Amino acid sequence: MLDVRFPAGPPVPVDDLLDQVTAGGRLSVGDERIRDFLSAFGRRLLRPTLSRRHPELGSLGFFLRRSELQRTIEGLRGEHVRVPRGLVFHIPPANVDTIFVYSWALSALVGNRNVVRLSPRAGTVAATIVKTLQETLDDADPIVAATQRIVCYDRSESITATLSTACDLRVIWGGDRTVDEVRKHPLPPYARDLAFPDRSSFAAVRATAWLCAPQATRQTVTEGFVNDSYWFDQAACSSPRTVYWVGSRADCHAARADFTTHLSHTVTERGWAVDAAMAVEKRVSTYGLAADGSAGAIDFHGNALANVTLATAVAAPRRWLGTGTFAHARLDSLTELVPLVGRRDQTMTHFGFPRAELLELARALAGRGVDRMVPFGDALSFHRVWDGVDLASEFTRLVTVSA
Amino acid sequence: MTVFTRSAAEREAALLPELAALTERHRRACEPYRRILDAIGSAAPYARVADLPWLPVRLFKTHELRSVPEEQVFKVLTSSGTTGQVPSRIYLDRQAAATQPRMLAATLRAVLGERRLPMLIVDSRSVVRDPTLSARGAGVLGMMNLGRDHTFALDERGVLNHEAVKGFLARHGGKPYLIFAFTFMAWLHLRELGMDLSQGVLVHSGGWKKLAAQSVDSAEYRRQLGEECGLRRIHNFYGMVEQIGTVFLEGPDGGGLYCPDFADVVIRDPDTWQEAPPGVPGLIEVVSTLPTSYPGHVLLTEDLGVVHGVDDGIWPGKRFSVLGRLPRAEARGCSDTHGLAAA
After folding, report:
1. Which residues of A touch B66 (CB under 8 A)?
2. Burial of A403 by CB count in 10 Å (0-12 exposed, 13-18 middle, 19+ buried)?
């Protein structure tokens, strides 16, 4: 049996759930009934009472604006006919409460029936989201309730297996181990997986640009960096872990020192603090880097900020080192990043590089890694193109028609 | 001859040069340790024991840290601890391997006396027979050196063996004998025995987590075991494989744990990392002169503790308690690398 969280209802056996969803009417790509529902849901999320308490719900509400939904649908227009894939089974991560909504909303928007497996360990934000979805349902077309399900079940191989054999697309968020676990369950021959495994991210700053920037800009950029990093305890796959300073030794030294002053100040002012367990975690990880020879120097600015000066840029750690732990390395030019980047690298947050230089880097990387380049402060903003995948497009199929 | 003689000032004066010398010795002999000290900018001279650079104890799980060449490693101790599956690896050369049981015996002599006592072990014999020796088994085995006529109070299924205990008491019950147990095991089984254990000296260790859940603290533990079993001599101790041979021992009056002369504790405020004054809880740093073959002489544990007083107890030096374990740091974020697999 699985708990049905949305639309709220009694627990049902998995087979009954599948029967219900399959029976529930047909949707089209960009179906108006779904658009109405999503934008009404988004408006509720933007109510100040909610978005003030949970800013991530504000971002989500913004993402679900009618105009944004329209843009997404328009982006799918082309020579061929877009059709929904069918039944999509979503397995979001337990620890980022909003991911499942982005994934589900885009899939529903393009006309799929969806079953979302919400982790039993999902947090209060997830509960708020489900409650808000339920409230929105009152004014929605019945087809929404008939075709969409958010369910919850504890580790059950058999339920995951049954849902896998029934779906046309399986979307797995949440790391290498989850992906490996879920992939043990076969899909129908025509179905496919869309997997989002462990990723890590870095930042790049041109030292001279930093040094020449007005004080107000440096402050704003630092605040953006703090949001990028501290919001999900620096464990979000798009939060920067290493900062590459690009420029001469002297410039990089001066820029990094000034950045550290701003960062330390901003972290303190914003009240980002870490507890004793996290403070110890950071000592273990940074001392470990030193023991390995990867870290040449470690300096702590209170417990909330630790800087590691890498012995060489090649030693950039990809794993999580504890909230507020940044590895730093210097490069002479942005193109030196090319051999350093790997498949695991996802987001590059940047400051001080013209668009042309970033485009050149993206081409030079030629798929080695890095799926997104965004300015400081935008690391956590969800985009319908994620991890190199245009989600709305992936959630559909194309019918070619020649006459 | 007891090893609980040094006042705080005497201890500081005696330990500082020894520990500082150990720091330099490990710095020279252990490359990863030297790199850590370089990275954090720690250099002699050190004015106080509390100024010496500490290592987080978990590094012995993640790294191979030894100060003797591989061919001189005589024994590798491992312990899984409670949180992870990765064990600590502690490298002992012949000399360190010989010193640690000797110093453990010297420490416990303060409460057991000069002669080996008959020993009742509140556990199953199987814990020391298991080829993949558990931390519990290793603890029992280490203590067995200190006693004779070892009797296991539990059968192979972990059930109380009344006959074995009765036999032991018939042979030895008239004179002092040693009872060794993990803290919770003693609580669980000794009261159930319903026998007079008034000549016994209970030495126990292993943590208070399960007892804290039942709202049993040290005072209540001593009171009930005294009332129900006649136990008057009860000594908790605190120690870890990463500082093998060093144990912090509860005094006869139960007023806290005391440090043997070759060791000390520093309670650190986890915000400032400065030494916390008596009465203020913090993370426990343990220092000991025993770790000569690996850089474990100054370790920051993940246990919380508090110093109750200095030179004011039944033995000299710091008097402290262990308050519990720091929870493991957890992060939000989208990967499952912190043990959060779905499916």
Report:
1. none
2. exposed
Which residues of chain A neighbour B39 with C-beta distances below 8 Å? 286-287, 290, 295-298
Same domain, A214 and A194: no
The length of chain A is 403
Residue B158 lies in a domain: yes
- Dihedral (CA of B275, B279, B285, B291) sign: positive
Looking up residue A342, the CATH number of its domain turns out to be 3.40.309.10
Domain co-membership, A276 together with A187: no
The answer to whether A181 contacts B342, with C-beta atoms less than 8 Å apart, is yes
Q: Which chain A residue lies closest to B41 (C-alpha atoms)?
A: A297
pLDDT at A148 over 60: yes
- Pair A12, A76 in one domain: yes
Say whether both A11 and A133 belong to one domain: yes
Choose among B32, B333, B341: nearest Cβ to A291. B32
* Same-domain check for residues A366 and A229: yes
Q: Choose, out of B38, B334, B337, the residue to mutate when testing the contact with A (most A CBs < 10 Å).
A: B334
Residue A113's H or E segment, with its range, is strand A113-118
Residue A13 lies inside a defined structural domain of this protein: yes
**Residue A197: closest C-alpha in chain B:** B335
**Residue A369 forms part of a structural domain:** yes
User: Which chain A residues have a beta carbon less than 8 Å from that of B329?
Assistant: 275, 277-278, 280-281, 322
Tell me if residue A298 falls in helix, strand or coil. Answer: strand
B33 contacts A291? CB cut-off 8 A: yes
Q: Is residue A99 part of a domain?
A: yes
Looking at beta carbons, which residues of chain B come within 8 Å of A182? 342-343
- What is the domain extent for residue A351? 200-375
Residue B342 lies in a domain: no
A&B contacts, CB < 8 Å: 163
Whether A396 maps to a domain, the answer reads: no
CB atoms within 10 A of CB B88: 22
Average pLDDT, chain A: 95
Residue B129 forms contact with A (CB below 8 Å): no
Q: Is A351 on the interface with B (CB under 8 A)?
A: no
Cα(A286)–Cα(A330) distance, rounded to whole angstroms? 19
Residues A41 and A84 both lie in one domain: yes
pLDDT band at B335 (very low <50, low <70, confident <90, very high): low
Between positions 285 and 314 of B, the ones with CB within 8 A of A are 300, 302
Kindly state whether residue B195 falls inside one of the protein's structural domains.
yes
Q: Residue B158 belongs to what domain range?
A: 8-325
Nearest to A96 among B33, B38, B332 (CB): B332
For residue B231, what are the CA distances in angstroms to B114, B162, B200?
A: 21, 18, 6
What 8-state DSSP symbol labels residue B160?
B
Q: What angle do CA B200, B202, B207 make, to 5 degrees?
A: 165
CATH of the domain at B217: 3.40.50.12780
CA-closest candidate to residue A89, choices A174, A10, A2, A18: A18
Could you tell me which of A204, A176, A226 has the C-alpha nearest to residue A372? A204
Residues A184 and A208 in one domain: no
Interface of A with B in 86-115 (CB under 8 A): 91, 93-96, 99
Q: Mark yes or no for CB contact B300/A96 under 8 Å.
A: no
Our count of domains for chain A comes to 2
Number of independent structural domains in chain B:
1
DSSP assignments along B282-295, one per residue: EEEEEEES---SSS
The model's confidence at residue B85, banded by pLDDT at 50, 70 and 90, is low
pLDDT digits (tens, 9 = 90+) for A160-212: 999 999 999 999 997 898 899 999 999 999 999 999 999 999 999 999 999 99
